[in-house]
Amino acid sequence: MQKRDLHNAVFNIAGESLWGLQGGLITSATVLVVILRHFGAGAAMIGSITSIETCALLFPQIVGLYLFRSRARRKAEIITYHYIAIIPPFFLIAWILHASPYLSLATVRAAVLACWGLEFITSGIVTAVWMDWIAGLFGRRFRGSVMGVSFCASSILGTAGGLFSGWVISHGNSAHTFSSLYVWAGVIATASITTFWFIDDPGSDVNGSLPHPKLSLILGNFRESLADRDFRAFLVGRILASSGFCILPLVGNYFSSAHGGAIEPGTLVRCGTAIAVGTALAELWLGRLGDRFGHRVGLICGIGAQVAALAILLLMHGVPACLLVYFLAGICAGSALVSHYNMVFETCPHENRGAHITLANLVIGGFTALTPIVAGVAAAHWGSHAVFAASLLLSVCALAWFLLRVREPRKRNSGRLAKIASYD
Asked: Residue 235 pLDDT more than 60?
């Protein structure tokens, strides 16, 4: 690792750590569920959280290909964009919660969920470009390790943020408490993104801009990506896996109910920090493992963890079950961050990696965006256990698919791999 790589790794880890801290303060899996339940939300609305996040995060990504084209100015453009578009919704939610005594419960629920969706829409516009930028900062030999350590540190501070949120909510389960959490999250998010100004971007040495992304060129890149049989198999596996574990907000709703153990809101949020612990361990371990043996094995581990989590949901209840499920969900999340994105990077058959990342996200999101809404409605009509059983079946199918049909990209002896290596 060269001096520039080490320098960038340090600041990438610092920035991701702070971003994880703010995420832990207001995680949608627990804190947002507690807030919505506080204002009278039912299973259907809570189940829609994941759908809103998926649609809002994935579908706007193609816009980023048009907005962020300058290689030399990319770092400045995407960091400034965070200041003006991604971070303000945190403060807007804080204001809505602060003003909630003067609003109807339905208005508060709708406004909070709408602002949460806005935050994900603005994030979605920059997601593919951000991941492409990060991928270009580090070589393929150690990129997984750097991403793993970065996300691990993010998850560790996310654990601290979640524990703090749980303690705060336990001592003051009120709109004012919820509002203060979003204010703190906005301030920490600002500090996080500011850290990335210190990244020494190799792209700043390159003059000019990326080619203007004509629709015909983007569609051509999409066709070239989809023509790859192994990439198609990878997409099918990820669609099955994502569909099988779209029920995380329903987990919090279930454990808050009498059937799940009637866990108190503050205790639920503290249990939710097990997600960050599992994510940290998975990211640290799977990033290094993937650099050595390929990132397919990391995805198999993540899907195996979600199968175990869903089995526990069907067989156990109470605080121990809650901790185990959230810990295994964290392993699944860590796999989805490190192993998934590195496999997307390495399955790209052309040099427009941003278009390839966007396509993967759009295809997976397009198939899975409505699944959480269906799961929420089904849970309201037939109960959570029926939904968990269906999710377990899909997850087992995803695990079998990855074991039998998805190949490790690095083992393919083709000219495409040489092109990827030169691009990295």
From this structure: yes
